[in-house]
Every structure is written in structure tokens, then in C-alpha cells.
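Hi R.,

Here are the chain sequences for the assembly we discussed:
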Amino acid sequence: MTFKVSENAIVMRIFATALLVAVAFCISVFLLPDFTVVLAVVSIVVLLCSVIFVVIYSKTEKITVNKEYIFFKKGVVFTLEYYYPNKILIYPLVIKPPAHACFGLYIVILKGVGSTLLLPPLEKEAVEKLLKSVASSEE
Amino acid sequence: MKNKIKPHPSYLLNLMYPYLTLLVIPVTRNMFIRFADKTNTNYHLHEMVILLLAVIVAAAKYKKISISVGKNITVKKGLFCKTELSICRNKGVVAVIEVNPILRVLKVARFKVYTESSGRKPDIDFPVTVKTAEKLKVYFGGRLFITKKRKGAATMALCNSSAISGILIILPVYRVIYDIFINKTGKILPIFGTFGRSVVWIALLGYAVSFAVLTFRNLNFKFSTTKEGFFIESGIFPHRTVFVNNKTVTSKSIIATPLMMIFKRCTVGFSACGYGLSSGETAVLVPAARLHETDKYRQRCSNTVIKPQLRAIGKCFLAPSLYLALTLFCVTVLWRFYPFLHSAFIIITVISAVFTVFSVASRIHILLFGKITVGSKINIKHRKRFGTKELIFGSGDIYLIKIKRTPFDRMFNLCSVKYYLFNKSKDKATLNGISYKVLKAIELLHKYTV
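And here is the predicted structure of the full complex:
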């Protein structure tokens, strides 16, 4: 079974990026008021590049659950692949922070023997399916 | 069957605590205001508002907490940041119910659950009523089969308290300071005599406190077996009931310090979910067992026994001799430049010599009596500081075997082998002076090629 990052998560990440860029813009304008126009142009360029990066990065994130292990892949230029054996999984921890709650998202952390795997934000249905498939693969 | 339990209302204080730290800012500010204008009496309002907010938020958080025990232990908590965790009981947990004298008056017990994934802190940690704690004992353990009282808490405490090492370090340091001061001032101030005596008294007091704490922690030791695991009840301040699922026990250990060897006793411990790593916890099955009582923890049929070779005796003297030679060299060089520190140097030399003798003796002891027994379980009797430790584990719990050969080892066809276990306690066992050919011939190693 394969899970991908939902559109809500991508929207949340774009929103967070925009907020960060806006805060950085305000601080830089406060420090350098004479360069407002330049800072505005730079901020827009940074925002556009960040949004493109966030979208591409989110699309690369993929979670696969099978009988023996959980496979999690992510990354654009530098890719990371995690193979997480089911036998070392102890329990999943589901967290709903306020920021994620606004977009209907949950964070799942897989706690295992001497290890922890942080998964990307998922919607409620995906979380339930993931937990069921993990539980069935353990059996 | 699902049972819902609620933490004790005293948990509200835990929930309020992070917000109470915010009061530090207004209290400090108000102290300045009060100092500047003694007629101003309005400053308490801010503190009241923060306190009220803290109480409301804590109460709301407390209402949101839900703990249910059944096939899984499920905890749901959080007001702004909601968290849910579900630990399967069959996965193996260590559950601890702790009652200290203060909590006993309030009829409160502390309920903790450890798993293999938790760090030094438990995965679940809540105060519950004593009645709930009794129900939880039944939930985890079920019917108790056999209960045995085990004595030896005081013996274990006497032999394991580490204040002696503290005294050995404080003594040379105190002497160095004392000698430097005499050299600089040319006279002995009474304060140094008092200081020296105080240091010795503090060290002795430290040993006494360490001894008392360890004794009280393991007094009234009871061991009970159940269908799924075993219960250990021990201690007065605090009284601790620990349930350990058999599945979680990755290894058992039989530890004998030099002092315990004099009394012909040893401590039998276990590793399960990292219980025992935090301060105040001792993962002990038997505090002070007689040597013949430990046979049941070792495997009955031993297929292959590997012992260190006597030709490795040279290695027993190598490291301690180098250490002693280095110490003597440093002391000799420093004596030339600082002759007024002669008494401190003498103390350091004597302590180093005693340390060397003990080190050589313990290495020779392991050379003669150490072994690796490979069968259904693996036993390794190896050196731990100046005593011995026997680690007993299954072959499935190994995650790495490291074989090391120095030039000395190659000359005599020897090696040292180190086993790393796959558990949170990160148990490891090293045995030196093993014949390299014999070790390689073991079938077990073929499954774990490094």
C-alpha cells in the first residue's frame, strides 16, 4: 500500500513558507527602510522559488507499507530512503498540532526499538489506513 | 475488556507547572515597582490573571486526558496539540507502579510504562489512585503463581555503593591543595585541617547515604511469577512494583563486584525496555544471590565452551604495567619541579599501585574463569571494572560481533571478541585471549559474518 502527501499538506507548507518570507521581509524593511523595493522584489523571487521547491519536494515523498518493512522516500537533489522493519516497530504516535489541525492534517511518528521515524503530514483517512496496514503487516 | 482510567487530580499541578514559570517575569517586575513606589498596590493583578489562566488551561487539559487499558494501552491527551498513542500489550512492556511516603499520604501512586522505544523517560507517566494501581497490577500480571521473598538488599548496597572511588579521588586532590598552600604561605592554617576533615566526613557521609538509598530501594524484595512475565516488588522509599513481560527481557546478567566475591554473593539483573537506566531504578532479579542459586539462570546444556588461553597471560600485565609506568614517570618528572608536593605524589603512587594490582588480579581471574558458552543461549563471563559480569542472552539478540586482533594477538593466534546486543540498554560483552581458530570454527559466527 502506498501513501503520498495530500494537497492540503502542500497548501499548508506553501502557507508556512509565505509566512516566513513575509516575516523576513518585514524585519529586513525595518532594518533597511531605504531598500524597500529591492527587498520586495527579492522576497517575491525567494517566495516563488520556495513554493516551487516545496511543491516538487512534497511530490517526491512516498510511503509504502508491505509485510516486512515500511519504506519512506523523499528528497529532490539529495534523496533519502528509509527502510523501517516492521519487527522493530513498537507503536505509532499520532499528533495533531493546532497549525496542522486547520488543514485537517495529522503527524505520525513511528516509534521503534532505538529509533524514531517522522512521517510527512497526512489526512485522517490516510492515517487510519496507514495504521491499519501497519497493524495487519505485524500480524 | 476495555477499562478507562483517569489520572489523579494532583496531575493538575504537573499541567500548571510550565505556565507557572511565566510568573517569574511579572513577580520580578513587581518587585522593582514595589521598591520604587511603595504606595502602588495594583501590581498583583497581572500575577492573578496569569495564575487564573494557568489553572483554566490545566483544568481543560486534564479533562481531555483519556487512558484506556484493554488489548492496547491507549492514551489521548492535549488541548492545543493533541497526541494519541497506542501501545500493544503483546509487544512487551515494563510497567512500574511507584508509591513514595508523600504520595502514600495522598493515596496516590505513580504509573509508568516503558517500551523498547522510550528514552530515559517512560512512554507513559501519570499519577493514579492507589485503587486504580491495584487494578492495573491485576491487568498486567493476572494471577500470581509463586511469590518469593528475597533478602540481600543491604549486602548489595554495601558492595555496590561507589563512594570509595570518590574518596580515592578526593584524597590526592585535597593533599595537593594542602601541600601547595603550605609551600606558598609557609604555615598551616587551621582552616585547612578543618577543610580536610570536612572533606573526609562528606565522603563518608556520601557513602552512608548511597548505602542507605540503595538498601531502602531494595528492602522487602519480593519476586512473583505470572503467566506472561514476573512482578518485582521492592523498596520502602519509594515502594516500587514492576511488571516485566517475559518477551521484553533481552538479557540477564550475573554481576559480582570484588566485595561481593568476598561474601560469595552476586547480583542477578536483567535488561528489559531500558528499565534501570534512569536514576532511582535498579533492574534486579535477585539482590544478593548465593553462587549456587545462579545456576538456574544459565543454560543447562552447553554445546560449546570457549575459554581464554593461558598464553594470553602476558596481556593481563601489559595495560596495567603501562599505566603504572606512565604514572611513575609523571610523578618522577613532577617531583623534580615541585618537591613540596611530595606527600601528594606518594599518595598518588600508592593508589596507582593498588589499582594496578587489582587490575592485574581481575584480568588473571577472567583468564582462568572467563568463558563463552554457546548453546540455546549464549553466556559470556567477562570482566566488568574489577569484578565479573556474566551476560546471558539469545543469539537473536545480537546485532554485531566484533573480533579484534592486536600484533600481540597475532603472534600467539589469539583475539578478543566483543558482542553487541540489540536492546535499549546497549549491553555489550568483551572477552580477551580467545583462540582465533577455535572462535572462527563456531557455526554461530558463520551466521553473523562481520
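The first strand of chain B starts at residue 3 and ends at 5. Chain B has a mean pLDDT of 79.

Let me know if anything looks off.

Best,
T.
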